[in-house]
Amino acid sequence: MGxxxxxxxxxxxxxxxxxxxxxxxxxxxxxxYLLSKINLLGIATNQGFDQRHRGKFxxxxxxxxxxxxxxxxxxxxxxxxxxxxxxxxxSVLIPFVKLRSNSKERIxxxxxxxxxxxxxxxxxxxxLEVLNSMGIATAVFDSFTPRNVYGWTGHHSERLSNxxxxxxxxxxxxxxxxxxxxxxxxxxxxxxxxxxxxEIALLAGWRPVxxxxxxxxxxxxxxxxxxxxxxxYEDPRxxxxxxxxxxxxxxxxALPDRCYEFKRQVAQSGGNILxxxxxxxxxxxxxxxxxxxxxxxxxxxxxxxxxxAEGSLHEAKMGLDQNSIERARxxxxxxxxxxxxxxxxxxxxxxxxxLDLITFVNAIFRSE
Length: 368
Hints:
Mean pLDDT: 81
Order of helices and strands: HHEHEEHEHEHHEEEHEEEEEHEH
Oligomer: single chain
Radius of gyration: 23 Å
Distance between the termini: 77 Å
Structural class: alpha/beta
Number of strands: 14
């Protein structure tokens, strides 16, 4: 009887030991990331920003702004006024409000553009955490819900346009300037996005867009784009605000060669742009998911997307544009193929991209 109990206990112990080992094996990448994240936050808070800006002084507030819903960039840049409006909800986090009532210190801010999936994901929150830990305010907004769209993928992919999200981003920029001028430096508000959101972050620096949506203003102070979709511009005029792009060397959706060409265009026109390319990294390299092929989106390797001086987003080889929902659906399917896009995380690339982000933000927003 005693031997049986002993054997049973050993069996339970072995099962538990094997289970823990398997869990550890499957989550070792996650553990590596969590450890590196702790280190990253430590680095972020020692990059020239006052430690008093953190923790108990956080302020979070919700807001609603009025925006418009142009479908194409042509509509946005056109002469006719856009009648369709949208009420955009969002929230702003101020890492500190005021330490003293007579303090005149103001902090930088970053407007965060949603990704293709709509809702904030873990990697989005992590980026926000890193920025907040540096004493930088952040604002997030929802372009999807007011327009009954639930993501930039699948059958929803053409219903929410770049022009709509650009309009929302500039509406948030205006709101921060007007309502948080005591806390936020209006000359130090940047824009950040990943994937489709990164595409918006770059478009927000195109002069025709800035002149239309921020007349008399300078637009955003900086443009930060994670694995964005880069276009060829017939009119490559961008504001002097610094840009930084992060992309994986193996990204077969956003395609680094298109971003190299975009960098060349911007630099030749006098723009200030950095491009960081990470080895063995694919689209979504800052996620925790393993590398996999996804069926939903169409690949872009055979597409040559360009933006005309009037704002028409079109496929240069076939002449198909995306100036309406119907045309966008036809254009996306004409040169793209399903079942080829690879997406997945790379811990080393993620960590390095955050270090590069911290260095970039510190350089442009360093405390006096």
